[in-house]
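Quick check before the chapter quiz. The format below is the same one you will see on the exam, so make sure you can read both the input and the output lines.
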Amino acid sequence: MTPEAMFDAYELYEYASANSLEYVWEGTTAYAKRLRILQPDQYIIRPVRTRRGITHALLFASAILRAEWEAEAPERERIEAIRYSRMLKAERAATDADRERLAASRQAWPARRRRRRPS
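Here is the expected output.
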């Protein structure tokens, strides 16, 4: 099957899977991004018939996505480390607050208990 012979979304999916391609739909931000950053020889734009009518799909090599994913790995790891440290800080803060609440209730407990006793 050649890209020119595509008629529906499932055929687009099959063609992209068989040829290690990714695709994005016209009208999405991913479509605009790919048009902006890729060279014309790195993608193919083909019409696709959908339930809503004819739209376009932009096909490009899966290797491009893999390269972007690997290039962004240090940033993802940095963000993950920040989230993890914030989680630990929140856990410590919650634990300290629980200790303070427990200490306050322990101090107030004998006073409450003394009030309940008949005089």
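If your answer matched, good. The radius of gyration is 30 Å.
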